[in-house]
Amino acid sequence: MLELDLSEQISALRSTFGDIQSVVDVEGLRAQIVELSEQAGVPDLWNDTEQAQKVTSALSHRQAELAKIISIDSRLDDLEVMVELANDESDEEAVTEAQAELVSLQKLLGELEVQTLLNGEYDPRPAVVTIRAGAGGVDASDFAEMLMRMYLRWAEQHGHKSTVLDTSYAEEAGIKSATIEIDSPYAFGTLSVEAGTHRLVRMSPFNSAGKRQTSFAAVEVVPLIETTDVVEVPENDIRVDVFRSSGPGGQSVNTTDSAVRITHLPTGIVVSCQNEKSQIQNRAAAMRVLQSRLLLAQREEENAKKKELAGTITASWGDQMRSYVLAPYQMVKDLRTDYEVNNPSNVFDGDLDGFISAGIRWRKRKIES
């Protein structure tokens, strides 16, 4: 039996892990955990429920991040021992186990390495994702609902809390639009590369002639603002409409006018929320989303001014950033990174990590070039 030699691969993993540790700042992370633990131990912490949840959530996320770093360090040591034992005992089962552990660590470190690239101002924030049906009629509405499910499944698979804030159903099938809040650290930085125009090509289930149909949907991703962010929205600048929450086909969800629609008059931005039963809660949630979009609009305006002064006004996104092809062949391809897979079903079921990682690396190269 040939001797198993993974020394080169393990050395590469240790090098990558060292780079990650320097960026993460493990000692700084430990200090944050100590500080947050002290805050969480204050007797009257839960007198302010919102602040208490923020502190305990931050503590939980920091502890999980540190635990992951410690675990990887231990697993790298264990992998070297596994290889040594496999060779000493010429154990094929141990060899297979060591090779599987190597692949697992390569995947995990690859994900952590990508996260270290998320160093933008708003990257650590939770995200608000809005999906809108575009050209393509009923197929576009159906496609928008497929994308909504895709992002909800992605969030579920990663243990991220997701809330559908608002859904506008189409008359025949699918949705006109939907807004989802994904409450997890770095959700915005991670999902921001999903923003753009998505295209679906398939044999339309809504076409009696069975013809191939192309449809489009737009995805918008904005960071969720915090109460410390200053985004002033004067009452005179908004119009608030209340209406009855509804589901598919117009079926009433409740019998009170609890849903809220806020229109920002200067920009025309419209935000709706009907997830909560209380009109007050829906208004508060809608205002947070409106402020998030205004915050992003301000940022984009500042960036546009900088580009204009530099004389480099170029579109950073094309008309479509990703194609989902179901007929005549099966493929999902990102047109910016050329990353592609041949299993659309898995992608629509939330398997987006490859696309997201490629997108984050692509964006980093664009910034550096």
UniProtKB/TrEMBL annotation:
Compartments, record wording: Cytoplasm
InterPro entries per UniProt: PCRF, Pep_chain_release_fac_I, Pep_chain_release_fac_I_sf, PrfB
SUPFAM superfamilies, per database record: Release factor
PTM annotation (N5-methylglutamine): residues: Q251
Keyword Transferase: no
Keyword Cytoplasm among UniProt keywords: yes
Any GO MF annotation of the entry: translation release factor activity, codon specific
GO cellular component: cytoplasm
Top-rank lineage group of the source organism: Bacteria
Residues annotated as domain Prokaryotic-type class I peptide chain release factors: 244-260
Post-translational modification: Methylated by PrmC. Methylation increases the termination efficiency of RF2.
Function field: Peptide chain release factor 2 directs the termination of translation in response to the peptide chain termination codons UGA and UAA.
Family: Belongs to the prokaryotic/mitochondrial release factor family.
The protein's name in its UniProt record: Peptide chain release factor 2
Gene name linked to the record: prfB
